[in-house]
Write a structure and sequence with these properties.
The protein has eleven helices and no strands. It is mainly α and about 270 residues long. The protein has one domain. Helix 1 runs parallel beside helix 6, helix 2 packs antiparallel against helix 3 and helix 2 packs across helix 6. About 40% of the residues are buried.
Length: about 270
């Protein structure tokens, strides 16, 4: 009877904390590539800031938007870094969890539900995004690229932006059986254009009119503009700021719903 009672207690605890067990598992898996996470978190921001923020800034002595070029481009570089990681995490790691090492099936063999698997997956990534964005933010501060004390808000904004692209891609990845070049096309036709035409290095108003729509549908542009607002005080109507938050939240929430449905369908069929 004691063993049965213990099993029931363990099952109840798993049902309650299953999402955290998934998060803990994913964090433990990071030990295999923690050196990459740490070095890239420090190395990528440093190269971006030295090459683009400092080097390219010499060609734009008057700055943009009334601020030095490094101050203008800094928030967008932070956002593009985190959103790019989000896009990557929404593709091969998700497909791999179903097709190659089948870790999602192994977890679901316990009492952990598909919804908890999704929740733990996202919490783990939120922790990773926070670390990388935090390092990038500290480097921006060290380079003198964050005039306002509210600049730290770029960190949660970047996480919101990353989820806006991560969850729809994860929903798609969970629904396919194999990668036959789809991910390469997504990188070339979605991620790269998003980086190039989302006002990262210049205001969106300088993009030809027929390309501006890319910025408006791009999570990166909205995240970058929000980052500039909290970083150096980009002036824009309050309704537009709130609209940007709503757009990113809508992408993330709708994507998470679709992601959960895709996981449920894949794990229970």
């Amino acid at each position: 009877m004691t063993d049965v009672a213990q099993i029931r207690r363990d099952a109840a605890q798993t049902r309650r904390w299953g999402w955290w067990y998934v998060t803990e598992l994913r964090l433990r898996e990071m030990k295999a590539y923690i050196s990459y996470v740490v070095t890239s978190s420090f190395g990528n921001p440093l190269m971006y800031l030295l090459g683009l923020g400092v080097g390219l800034a010499n060609l734009i002595p008057d700055g943009i938007d009334g601020v030095p070029f490094l101050v203008f481009v800094g928030p967008a570089l932070l956002m593009s870094t985190i959103l790019t990681i989000g896009a990557e995490e929404g593709m091969y790691p998700v497909l791999g969890g179903f097709k190659w090492h089948k870790i999602f099936f192994a977890i679901h063999a316990t009492t952990v539900t598909p919804g908890q698997i999704v929740g733990g997956f996202l919490v783990h990534l939120a922790i990773r995004f926070t670390f990388t964005a935090g390092v990038f933010y500290l480097m921006l501060v060290a380079f003198g690229a964050v005039p306002l004390g509210t600049g730290w808000l770029m960190i949660p904004i970047s996480i919101l932006g990353a989820f806006a692209i991560l969850t729809p891609l994860a929903a798609y990845s969970a629904g396919i059986e194999d990668d036959r070049g789809q991910f390469a096309l997504i990188q070339r036709l979605i991620v790269m254009p998003m980086f190039l035409f989302s006002g990262t290095f210049f205001p969106l108003s300088q993009v030809p009119d027929w390309l501006e729509w890319i910025g408006w549908v791009s999570p990166l542009w909205h995240a970058s503009q929000l980052g500039r607002t909290v970083s150096y005080g980009l002036v824009e109507p309050l309704w537009l700021t709130l609209l940007r938050v709503a757009i990113l939240a809508a992408y993330g929430v709708i994507g998470a719903i679709l992601m959960r449905r895709a996981f449920v369908r894949r794990l229970t069929r």
